[in-house]
TrEMBL record:
GO terms for cellular component: cytosol. Pfam families: Glyco_hydro_1. Gene3D superfamilies: Glycosidases. This is Glycoside hydrolase family 1 protein. Keywords: Glycosidase, Hydrolase. GO terms for molecular function: beta-glucosidase activity. It comes from Enterobacter quasihormaechei. Belongs to the glycosyl hydrolase 1 family. The lineage of its organism: Bacteria, Pseudomonadati, Pseudomonadota, Gammaproteobacteria, Enterobacterales. InterPro entries: GH, Glyco_hydro_1, Glyco_hydro_1_AS. GO terms for biological process: carbohydrate catabolic process. The active site is at residue 360.
C-alpha cells in the first residue's frame, strides 16, 4: 500500500545544542554535574564528547541535504549565548548561530529553533533554577534577545522542549540535576516553566515577527489496564500530571480544574500571584510539537500508600506491564505505533485540532555495529519502526488531524544525557574517535520517503 502525505509536509529530524555542539563558554547544569559525579553517566562519557556540530555544522547540514530534509529542529544554548544567563551576549555564539541559520535557509532546510532543551546555565541554577521567578525573567530576556537576533530568518520557534522532563528528572525521580525529590518543588518548577513560556510568547507577539511560536511536549498517552472505574481514574490522574499539566495551559490558556483541585487537596500547589492567570492565558501557541516514544500503561494501586514516603504521582496509580507488549529491549520502552494516532485524535477532538507536527519519534539501539554489512549499518528495525508510526500518522491525517510534519530523533548518533552513547538513534552513524559520519540504511530509506513525499508498505 502507498502512503502519500500532504504537499509541503515537513520531513526532517531534531537535535539539541547540548547533545551535539560540544565545547561551550558558559557552564550548564550538565557540565557541573558531570564534573562532580561522572559515575552517574554511562561509561563516564560527559557532555563535552559530542558529534561536534560546533566544528562540523557545514558538513552536517550537507548530510541533512542528502537526507532530503526540508526542515530541521535544533536548539540555541542559553549558556553559549549568555554564559551567565543574564549578562553580556557572547558575539562568537551569535556568529555561530547566524552561520547555521543562514546555511540551513540557503540549502532549503527550514530552521525550527528551540530556546530551552534541558540546558540550564549553571549560574541560573545556583539561584534556584526554575524555582526562582528571577530565572523566569532572565529566560524571558534571553528569548527576546534570540527573537531580535534571529527572528527575521527563523520562522518557527519553540519555547521549551519536553518541559515535563526537567520536572520529573530534577525534582521527582533523580535522573537530572539537581537530583531533588520533592513534589511541591517539582510543581513550582513546572508552574514557573509555564510562566516563562507565556512570557516568551508575549514577547514574540509584541515584536510582530513574521513567524510562529509554539512548544514541544512529549505526550505519553495514558492507557488504563481495564475499564474498571479505579483503573480509568488512575489513567486520568497520570494524564493530568504528565500530559495535561503543560498541554492545557499552552492550548487552552488555563490549567485543568481537577489537577488544581487534586494538588490543593494534598497541599502541593505552587505559590501563585493574582496576575499569573492572565499571563498564562496569553501563552497560547501557534504550533505544537509532539514528541512520541512510548505509551504509559497504568492501573489503580494494589497497595496502600506509605504516609511517611514522599508525596509522588505514584500515590494515585501503578505502572502496568501489558502482556504481549512489543518492546525495544535496549531502551526498555514499549513500541506502540497506534499511540501516535491516539494523540492526534485527542488533539483533534478535545483541543480544537491545533496545528501540530511530530517533532520527535525514534528508536535507540545498543551496539549497532552488530548490523554492519558492507561497511553500512543495516538498521531494518528502524525502517520498520518509522514506517509503522508513519502509517498510523497517515491515518490520523486522513481523518482530519492537523498534523503538518514528521521529525525523527535524530539525524546523527548523539550524546544522550545520562546514557551518553549507549543507545544510538541516528540516520547517520558517528564514529566518536574519528568523528567520521556514515549513512545508515534508514537514512537512505528516509531520504527516498522525503523525496517522494510517500512510501510503500505491505
Amino acid at each position: 500500500m502507498k502512503y502519500a502525505f500532504p504537499d509541503n509536509f515537513w520531513w526532517g529530524s531534531a537535535s539539541s545544542a547540548l547533545q551535539t555542539e560540544g565545547a561551550r563558554e558558559g557552564e550548564t547544569t550538565w557540565d557541573y554535574w558531570f564534573a562532580r559525579e561522572p559515575n552517574r553517566f554511562h561509561n563516564g562519557v560527559g557532555p563535552q564528547q559530542t558529534s561536534a556540530f560546533y566544528q562540523h555544522w557545514k558538513t552536517d547540514i550537507q548530510l541533512l541535504k542528502q537526507l532530503n530534509h526540508n526542515s530541521f529542529r535544533t536548539s540555541i544554548s542559553w549558556a553559549r549565548l549568555i554564559p551567565d544567563g543574564i549578562g553580556e551576549v557572547n558575539p562568537e555564539a551569535v556568529d555561530f548561530y547566524n552561520q547555521v541559520i543562514d546555511e540551513l535557509n540557503e540549502q532549503g532546510i527550514t530552521p525550527f529553533m528551540t530556546l530551552f532543551h534541558f540546558d540550564m546555565p549553571m549560574a541560573m541554577q545556583e539561584i534556584g533554577g526554575w524555582e526562582n521567578r528571577d530565572v523566569v525573567e532572565a529566560y524571558a530576556r534571553y528569548a527576546q534577545i534570540c527573537f531580535e537576533l534571529f527572528g527575521d530568518r527563523v520562522l518557527h520557534w519553540f519555547t521549551f522542549n519536553e518541559p515535563i522532563v526537567p520536572v520529573e528528572g530534577g525534582y521527582l525521580y533523580d535522573f537530572h540535576y539537581p537530583n531533588v525529590v520533592d513534589f511541591r518543588r517539582a510543581a513550582t518548577v513546572a508552574y514557573h516553566t509555564v510562566l516563562a513560556h507565556a512570557k516568551a510568547v508575549q514577547a514574540y507577539r509584541a515584536g510582530h515577527y513574521a513567524g510562529e511560536i509554539g512548544i514541544v511536549l512529549n505526550l505519553t498517552p495514558s492507557y488504563p489496564r481495564s475499564q474498571n472505574p479505579a483503573d480509568v481514574k488512575a489513567a486520568h490522574i497520570a494524564d493530568l500530571m504528565f500530559n495535561r499539566s503543560f498541554l492545557d495551559p499552552v492550548l487552552r490558556g488555563e490549567y485543568p480544574a481537577d489537577l488544581v483541585a487534586l494538588l490543593k487537596a494534598y497541599d502541593q500547589l505552587p505559590a501563585c500571584k493574582p496576575e499569573d492567570s492572565a499571563l498564562i492565558a496569553e501563552g497560547k501557541i501557534d504550533l505544537l510539537g509532539v514528541n512520541y516514544y512510548q505509551p504509559r500503561r497504568v492501573k489503580c494501586r494494589d497497595s496502600a500508600v506509605n504516609p511517611q514516603a514522599p508525596f509522588m504521582p505514584e500515590w494515585f496509580f501503578d505502572n502496568y506491564e501489558m502482556p504481549g507488549r512489543k518492546m525495544n529491549p535496549y531502551r526498555g520502552w514499549e513500541i506502540y505505533a497506534p499511540g501516535i494516532y491516539d494523540i492526534l485524535v485527542n488533539l483533534r477532538d478535545n483541543y480544537g485540532n491545533p496545528r501540530c507536527f511530530i517533532s520527535e519519534n525514534g528508536m535507540g539501539v545498543e551496539n549497532e555495529q552488530r548490523f554492519i554489512e558492507n561497511g553500512q549499518i543495516n538498521d531494518q528495525y528502524r525502517i520498520e519502526f518509522i514506517s509503522e508510526h508513519l502509517s498510523w500518522l497517515h491515518k490520523g491525517i486522513s481523518e482530519g488531524c492537523n498534523c503538518l510534519g514528521y521529525h525523527m530523533w535524530t539525524f546523527i548518533d548523539n550524546w544522550s544525557w545520562c546514557n551518553a552513547y549507549k543507545n544510538r538513534y541516528g540516520f547517520i552513524q558517528l564514529d566518536l574517535e574519528t568523528q567520521q559520519r556514515t549513512m545508515k540504511k534508514s537514512g537512505e530509506w528516509f531520504a527516498a520517503t522525503a523525496l517522494n513525499n510517500s512510501f510503500e508498505k505491505e
